[in-house]
Design a protein that fits this description.
The complex is a heterodimer. Chain A is mostly beta strands. Helix content of chain A is 0%, strand content 54%. In chain A, strand 7 and strand 8 form a beta hairpin. Chain A starts with a strand and ends with a strand. The chains are: A mainly beta, B mainly beta.
């Protein structure tokens, strides 16, 4: 049973525009959520996180939104840059993380 | 400041053999977790070590075992390798000084191929 789902395997966005990556989860006990970015041949790199007591967290071009009632979180990247092209994973949990299957973002120059 | 380092980067083993993967955590981190990432999937939690003990375990068979040393480095051992064990094995370290809700930092992974 997939507790964390990323239903879009891929996304293409023009440089300078907004990228929105989505993630759904099923376990209402999750209280910490994270986004990681992964380039080929590298390990995942931490981007941004959010605690369940918040509904928004910003860090530069990256903003994560959490909708607990819908069990949904999203990552907004504004403006998108070609260097943002990578696979993005959302993760949830405490002590251990449950990861989604990832969304491959391609930012077109 | 060195991040999380893993060795080796690539490994080829034969079915039935045993393998040991190694991880050095980021400086100052005392908690090490291991994940398995199969092709096209997200990382799956294997287990976590804290204070040299296994603290949490995911849904993996006993063929997967680990160890944490006093310097916080860690090993992942897999016995009786199966073809399905072929994957990228990721080590992540963290320092839960703010409670357990804290980001983990990943190494570059060990690509294990079982033939």
């Amino acid at each position: 049973d997939q507790q964390v789902k990323q239903n879009s395997p891929s996304l293409s966005v023009q440089e300078g525009r907004i990228s929105i990556l989505n993630c759904d989860y099923t376990n209402s006990m999750f209280d910490y959520f994270l986004w990681y970015k992964k380039y080929p041949a590298e390990g995942p790199t931490f981007l941004i996180s959010i605690s369940s007591i918040k509904d928004k967290n910003e860090d530069g071009r990256f903003t994560v939104f959490l909708n607990k009632s819908a069990k949904h979180l999203s990552l907004h990247i504004v403006p998108s840059q070609p260097g943002d092209s990578a696979v993005y994973f959302c993760a949830a949990g405490t002590y251990k993380y449950i990861f989604g299957t990832g969304t491959r973002l391609k930012v077109l120059a | 400041d060195a991040g999380v380092t893993q060795s080796p980067t690539h490994l080829i083993k034969t079915r039935g053999q045993q393998v040991t993967l190694r991880c050095s955590p980021k400086s100052g981190h005392d908690t090490v977790s291991w994940y398995q990432q199969a092709l096209g999937q997200g990382p799956q939690f294997i287990f976590q070590y804290y204070e040299e003990e296994e603290r949490q375990r995911g849904n993996f068979p006993d063929r997967f075992s680990g160890h944490q040393f006093p310097n916080y480095s860690s090993e992942l051992n897999v016995n009786a390798l199966l073809l399905g064990d072929s994957a990228l094995y990721l080590c992540a370290s963290s320092f839960p000084d703010r409670g357990w809700n804290t980001e983990a930092f990943f190494g570059q992974g060990t690509r294990l191929t079982v033939v």
